[in-house]
Amino acid sequence: MATGILGLAACSAVVADTTTLSNKDKAVALVSSIETGDVAPIAYINPERYIQHNLAVGDGLAGFGAVMHMLPEGSAKAEVKRAFQDGDFVVLHTEYNFFGPKAGFDVFRFEEGKIVEHWDNLQEIAPANISGRTQFDGPTEVTDLDKTEENKAIVANLVDTVFIKGDFSKIGQFIGPEDSDYLQHNIGVADGLSGLSIAVQALNDAGLPMIYTENHKILGQGNFVLAISEGTFMNKHVSFYDLFRLDNGMIVEHWDTIEEIPAKADWKNANGKFGFNK
């Protein structure tokens, strides 16, 4: 597959049908090809305009091909668990084995049916949390398409009011009071507001508060909304990817990944971790 990627980076002669598949289907096919080795989905990428925001990977197809070349043969796994589309963006939630087992979110931006930009956030896979939930289980079906904008606004308000401004007195506007009202997939947090409160207090007591400084993007479709934010966790500069499921105007489930942002001297490209045009 790495040879195919590098070849496409040098020559745009590969032709793919970009009309019959949705952008979501193309993104799923591309990520799945990491495991299958199928080179055909590489042609869903515009090789002349592909911008990479994974800071451990060089820019363009050549950078991605170089990373794929380093993978031990037969080691890669990529099983997409959730997928949704918001305008020109596609969001995937994937179980990876990519230089080790990882939970990952990928965001692809499309222009004229081709992928032109990619962001991701990866975290090591851990055992089930105290409530018995993993980083991947739970509902996957996208529903309530008519509530997309309403649900995105709710999550944007939560992130700004509670996470960034720190007004936890208003969290009841977004999450119900019973533990069963909020199902938690974060590896270190139990279900419900009680589980969240215990985890936040433990971090504060240890002098390691979780701090959100800026929200960079809200993407959603129907009942699923992803918030991409920046801040500090365990005294490290990180990116937060928080995926929420909503039902009847309330947030009822949460998955996430937290990834440390390396020092700029260690970046393999100059595009930055975020770089969304809001």
Provide an overview of this structure:
- The structure is a single chain.
- Helix content is 23%, strand content 32%.
- The chain has 278 residues and is an alpha+beta fold.
- The strands form two sheets. A five-stranded mixed beta sheet has the order 1-5-4-3-2, covered by helices on one side. Strands 6-10-9-8-7 form a five-stranded mixed beta sheet, with helices on one face.
- A hairpin with a 3-residue loop joins strand 3 (89-97) and strand 4 (101-111).
- The longest helix has 17 residues, at 148-164.
- It starts with a helix and ends in an 18-residue tail after the last strand.
- The model is unreliable at 6-14 (pLDDT under 50).
- The structure class reads alpha+beta
Q: Using the coordinates above, name the CATH class of the largest domain.
A: Alpha Beta
User: Runs with pLDDT <50, length 5+?
Assistant: 6-14
Q: Strand-and-helix sequence, N→C?
A: HHEHEEEEHEHEEEE
Instruction: Please tally the β strands and state the result.
Output: 10
> Cα-atom Rg, whole angstroms?
19 Å
InterPro entries: NTF2-like_dom_sf (IPR032710)
Protein name: SnoaL-like domain-containing protein
